[in-house]
Amino acid sequence: MVTEALVDALQAGQIAGAGLDVTDPEPLPDDHVLRTLPNVVLSPHLAAQSESVQRQSVKLLCDSIRLAVPGERVQSLVNPEIYQQT
């Protein structure tokens, strides 16, 4: 599987890092190793956005800001285990 080969290469240092917009499987399971690697940046599949998706993304952003400003936990954290409230 390509994803497993990518993980192996990232862990072995054969690839310095990866920025991924699309994953296999998608959505990526919460406990997937790609979510834990420090040399991986994940984005929420934003490369090809329709107008509808753009509106949904703006709503998600606004909801996240509305939660984050008073210190509440936002819903769409990529690595929730590193979230720390201040």
Could you explain how this protein is built, in words?
Helix content is 34%, strand content 7%. It has 86 residues and is mainly alpha-helical. The protein contains two helices and two strands; from the N terminus they run αββα. It has two domains: 46 residues, no CATH class; 38 residues, no CATH class. The longest helix is centred in the C-terminal third of the chain and has 18 residues. The protein has a two-stranded parallel ribbon with strand order 1-2.
Please summarize what this structure is:
With 86 residues, the protein is mainly α. It has helices at 2-12, 51-68; strands at 18-20, 40-42.
**Helix/strand order, N-terminal first:** HEEH
Helical fraction: 25-40%
- What is the percentage of strand-forming residues? 5-15%
Strand order, largest beta sheet: 1-2
Kindly state the number of beta strands.
2
> Count the helices. How many?
2
Query: Domains counted in the coordinates: how many?
Result: 2
Biggest β-sheet strands, sense, barrel: 2 strands, parallel
Assign an overall shape: globular
Indicate the structural class: mainly alpha
Task: Round the Cα radius of gyration to an integer and report it.
Answer: 15 Å
Oligomer status: single chain
Ends distance? 40 Å
Average pLDDT value?
Answer: 85
Flag low-confidence runs: none
